[in-house]
Structure of HTH tetR-type domain-containing protein:
Amino acid sequence: MARPKTPILSKPAIRAAALAVIDRDGLEKLSMRKLAQELDVRAASLYSHYGNKDELLTEISEEVTADIDVSGFDQDWREGLARWSRSYREALTRHPNLLPVAAAGPGRREEALRRADAVHGGLVSAGWPPKQATMIGASAKYLIVGAATQSFARGFDDDVRVYRDRYPNLTQAHRLPEHASEIDDASFELALTAFLDGLEGLFAQVTSGENEGSGEA
């Protein structure tokens, strides 16, 4: 008799299956036991590839965020921030259920630390004081993660009766979900542009010596 086929496990296959569970059921539903069932193997088989779920999630996060672009700082700090912000948001919105992991601090994640180093270094090299470079990175991340966390437009009900009479300033609110992607993208661009424009003014002060009290990181 032919020997029964045993599924061949690999790290990429495990990551793909785990991400599929996260996308479908949510991050909190992923467990090594459930993942083993998805792959039709014993849970113990997974531990020869990943010591625990956190280790697996770290590699999934690294993979999902691999396309975040920090190359623009070789042109100027504004272009660098714009590229980083847009590509970071795009990476997070592709797998919203993974956001708590993918948007977490770099910790000891090598690729996340490399990107943080590139952003901070790019800003300092351009002339920003280290303390302000740190604050700019943090502020940009607040904007990016906030934009990726939920959709503003999809937060409204699509039933016109909800707004009629009682909310006269929201007479078109029922149409917002229909245009959610367009509204969310345009709103992020508006916020990002306003943020960068504001930094331009502050940078002029910094480079002219008007903000000498900025200090070190």
Remarks:
- The chain has two domains: 11-62, 68-214.
- The two ends are 69 Å apart (CA to CA).
